[in-house]
Specification:
There is one protein chain. By secondary structure, the chain is α/β, with parallel strands linked by helices. The protein has one domain: NADP-dependent oxidoreductase domain (TIM Barrel), CATH 3.20.20. 39% of the residues lie in helices and 14% in strands. It is built from 13 helices and ten strands. The protein has an eight-stranded parallel barrel with strand order 3-4-5-6-7-8-9-10, surrounded by five helices. It starts with a strand and ends in a 10-residue tail after the last helix.
Length: 343
């Protein structure tokens, strides 16, 4: 297993982590992802550890906290051998303060997560989304206090825009507080918006990407193709899940899958293995979160490791997946002498 430096920290993480969105299956949204109980989750954890994947990602909202509880049970007796990453800020209760990045909510969210995960500390704690109603100073001071207290070790964010992240980094620098070292962001062959601003920011500010939904919300599994019905088991059958996932035109998906199919014939690899391998070669990417309903999916995803696409194959995928840039990025790309694209 390859390990990469996480941002500007001295901490190294494996290039793959196991996501726990399929643990629990509570509620219509997460049920469409999977419903692994403790026994099934423990088996996935065992397979991951055997493959060298010792990092596991969760969040307080996954199945209403059940995913963290199941992960904690699956890791019991081997906490010292693993890296736990989790997130908070989405609504997690009915009270007016049970949401966001206020000191009140973050302190209670971390304490509840520690209890559910059955651990004394969280290795990587991320703000699940930006909270425009709470002063950034309040949020970052709270996270700094949590690091000082030993409850969390490294901090990051998720789903931030460029200015959200840069403002947070600037405030941390101003006060000498712990800096975010990771941005858990959506990035895939059918969703490359991350490259426009967040990737250059990550390079310049040394903030690594932890990639969520690397298979484009289940669209790059190799089972979604032009003129074919969706597979029997897919989150895309759930309108709720589809509406909350990243938007992408069907024709763009099919175009990218056509390119993946051609490279699959050249390499003997599967469509998801190629899509994952492409991500592992992108700038700033330190870790890619792979999810799995079952052993078969997990083992297939593991086949993305131990080899690399050729430069020509990467170029073919880049060309097939490119989309028009939004302003000001299309304008900036016209002046590569001053604004070279990330490489």
């Amino acid at each position: 297993m390859e390990f990469r430096q996480l941002g500007a920290s001295g901490f190294k993480v494996p290039v793959f982590s196991l996501g726990t969105g399929t643990f629990g299956g509570k509620g219509d949204f997460f049920k469409s992802w999977g419903d692994n109980d403790v026994k099934a989750a423990t088996r996935l954890v065992d397979i991951s550890l055997e493959a060298g994947i010792n990092m596991f990602d969760s969040a307080d909202i996954y199945s209403g906290g059940a995913a963290e509880e199941i992960l904690g049970a699956a890791l019991r007796g081997r906490r010292d051998k693993v890296i736990i990453s989790t997130k908070a800020t989405f609504r997690n209760g009915q009270g007016p303060n049970d949401v966001g990045s206020s000191r009140f909510n973050l302190l209670q969210a971390v304490d509840k997560a520690l209890k559910r995960l059955d651990t004394d500390y969280i290795d990587i704690f991320q703000l699940h989304g930006y909270d425009a109603t709470t002063p950034v100073e309040e949020t970052l001071r709270t996270l700094n206090d949590l690091v000082s207290a030993g409850k969390i070790r490294y901090t990051g964010v998720s789903n931030f825009s460029g200015w959200h992240l840069m403002k947070s980094l600037a405030v941390s620098d101003r006060y000498g507080w712990n800096r975010h070292v990771a941005h858990q962001a959506y990035y895939s062959l059918i969703g490359r918006d991350y490259e426009w601003e967040l990737m250059p920011l990550g390079i310049e500010q040394k903030v690594s990407a932890i990639v969520w939904s690397p298979l484009g919300w289940g669209r790059l599994t190799g089972k979604v193709r032009r003129g074919q019905a969706l597979p029997d088991t897919s989150r895309l059958h759930s309108q709720l899940s589809t509406d909350k996932g990243p938007p992408v035109p069907d024709e763009h998906v099919y175009k990218v899958v056509d390119a993946l199919d051609l490279i699959a014939k050249e390499t003997g690899k599967t469509v998801p293995q190629i899509a994952l391998n492409w991500l592992l070669q992108r700038p700033t990417v330190a870790n890619v979160i792979i999810g799995a309903r079952n052993e078969e999916q997990l083992k297939n995803n593991l086949g993305a490791l131990g080899w690399n696409l050729s430069a020509e194959q990467v170029k073919k995928l880049d060309e097939a997946s490119v989309t028009p840039l939004a302003y000001p990025y299309w304008h900036q790309r016209d002046f590569k002498e001053r604004n070279p694209p990330p490489v």
